[in-house]
Amino acid sequence: MKTLLRAALMGSVVTLAGFGLAQAQEAPAPGTIIAVAPSGPVLNLSATGEAKIAPDMAVITTGVATDAPNAAEAMRLNREKMTAVVATLRRMGVDMKDIQTSGLNLSAQYTYRENLPPLLRGYQASNMVTVKVYDLDRLGQAVDAVVASGANQINGVSFALRDPSAAEDAARRDAVRRLKAKADLYASATGMRLKGLRSLSEGSGYQPPQPMYRAVAGNVAEMDASTPVAPGELTVRIDIQGVYELE
To answer: Of 245, 219, 207, whose CA–CA distance to 148 is shortest?
Structure first.
């Protein structure tokens, strides 16, 4: 009986050695990822981590819309007013590289009448720019200044981070903590314990928030103080997915 058992064990060793040789002869190409299947039950979980941080820049979308009886006049008026708006931004300390045209349009304007052809009443030219402002203490002043110089459209003001990497990393750490806590809870509730983390993947990262201020600018010449614009606080979110093996 011992002889048979010894033979069986020797046979196992030979089989494993032969398997290893075959594997060595068929080694995967460099860079190939080999996934090892879990040997027991697993938990597939997701978690979201957050980090709150004050913004350090704002993005304004502003511009000029002008109406005139003909297209050339509408464009001329728009060009004059938009030149004044850009000059004001430059005086406020905004660099030209932080001013980008985001919309330039010329369209015919019609009056629609019942049972009659549309009546052309003139043309409208519009020129919109996206402006990055880094001095948030002067953001309200900048909004008022561009309006006073001729801008009559403010389509959005949003806040962002020049470099979100530190906030993203903080959100990642928070996400991992939340994922582990959730895994511990499930393991405890099922009477099992965590054997190890099998995989971890990341979903969406930082995205600038949607515009927080939206208005059509009016006459602010008589305002005693600058338009109040509150930067508030940004929430940076990171989504992760993880697979834990249980035992």
So the answer is: 219
φ/ψ (deg, to 5) at 51: -140, 130
Question: Does a structural domain hold residue 202?
Answer: no
CATH number at residue 125: 3.30.70.2970
Q: What is the mean pLDDT of the chain?
A: 82
* Per-position DSSP letters for 105-134, written without gaps between them: EEEEEEE--TTS--EEEEEEEEEEEEEEE-
Nearest to 92, CA basis, from 139, 161, 156, 153: 139
Is the Cα torsion angle 82, 216, 208, 132 positive or negative in sign? positive
What is the domain count for the chain? Answer: 1
Taking every pair of Cα atoms in the chain, the longest distance, rounded to a whole number of angstroms, is 109
- Give the start-end residues of each E strand in 112-203: 119-133, 153-160, 194-202
Burial 32-50 (b: 16+ CB within 10 A, else e): eeeeeebeeeebebebebe
pLDDT confidence of residue 188: 94
227 is in which domain, residue-wise? 55-162+209-232
Which single residue is written with the structure tokens 């006049």? 73
E strand or H helix at 187, and its extent?
helix 165-189
Q: Which amino acid is at 2?
A: K
Q: Encoding tokens for residue 65?
A: 């819309």
pLDDT digits (tens, 9 = 90+) for 1-35: 444 334 333 343 333 333 343 444 455 555 443 44
User: 């953001």: which residue's tokens?
Assistant: 139
